[in-house]
Amino acid sequence: MSTHHESAPPLPEPDTPSQASRTRATTVPLIRQRKREGRTETPIVMLTAYTARQAELLDPHCDMLLVGDSLAQVIYGLPSTIPVTLEMMAAHGAAVVRGARHALVVVDMPFGSYEGAPQQAFASAASLLKQTGAGAVKLEGGAAMADTVAFLVARGIPVMGHVGLTPQAVNVLGGYGARGKSDAEAEKILADATALEAAGAFSVVCEGVVEPIAVTLTDRLAIPVIGIGASNHCDGQVLVTDDMLGMFDRVPRFVERFANLAEEVGTAARTYAAAVRNRSFPSAGHVYRTTA
Question: How far apart are CA 83 and CA 193, in angstroms?
């Protein structure tokens, strides 16, 4: 079977409520328009993707695909997202864009590529979009990043924000625990998201916050709020795909395992190994023979 994108068979119709999104790729304005009054009527579906084939499989069912810096742990076995580079994000982002036909592809900006100054952020984001063909970037941080978000948006770069638990700040936060438990922390999260909206972010991820804050945030903002470890009141949901597929033994409490692929992969590998060792594979049907 050919692996060239051009020769791949047509993918099934995307599972989306909007007829417009069935006839053209999902865009930033379409995502933003999904929230008109109050929370989004039909939740926005978002999953992470890191490879072209993964994108092909997820794309028909998702409104957005996030090339997350979670690839640090999922792909590279790193302890956190801190070591991720622009080069890593560009390589995986380009692969995902090649596999996606319907979903809006959003690429995470890695730690250290945007915090220094708006000009640094623009150079990094422009490079990512040029190299990948993605539709938007995502960056972590709240009010402190508002000027940077405004700078990017004014120069044609769509930005998704990220508040609450921000993994790139794990060294400052001291861990991955839920945020918003104190009044002061809750107010900061709300202020951060409001500042990002005012700066021009088209959407914001709300991660690892206590549910009342996620509900308030969703009702307060006019842009979609995408929850992860937040509330089903949010305008949409995102999960790390490998967590959702059961590829890891340990996952956060907010993850639902919709499959157990780790067990299936182990079973397949064990069956293959047995077939090789008892010489039942390859069989006669798997080998090439000279013609008579």
Answer: 26
Residues found in the chain: 292
Quote the DSSP letter at residue 155: T
- The tens digit of pLDDT for each residue in 157-208 reads 999 999 998 867 555 555 556 665 888 999 999 999 999 999 999 999 999 9
Distances (CA, A) of 165 to 92, 109, 128, 239: 24, 16, 24, 14
Cβ proximity of 138 and 224 under 8 Å: no
Residue 163, number of CB atoms within 10 A of its CB? 31
| Residue given tokens 């915090």 in the structure block | 115
Residue ranges covered by each domain of the chain: 5-260
Compute the average pLDDT of residues 230-235: 95
Catalytic residues, by residue number, are 207
Q: Tokens for 26, please give them.
A: 């999902």
Q: Does domain 5-260 have CATH number 3.20.20.60?
A: yes
Which residue type does 233 have?
H
Q: How far apart are CA 13 and CA 144, in angstroms?
A: 41
Rounded CA separation 165/228 (Å): 10
Tokens found for residue 263: 């067990």
* Residue 121: strand pairing partners: none
Measured CA distances, 246 to 57, 242, 265 (Å):
16, 6, 11
- Per DSSP, the three-state class of 19 is coil
Q: How far apart are CA 70 and CA 240, in angstroms?
A: 8
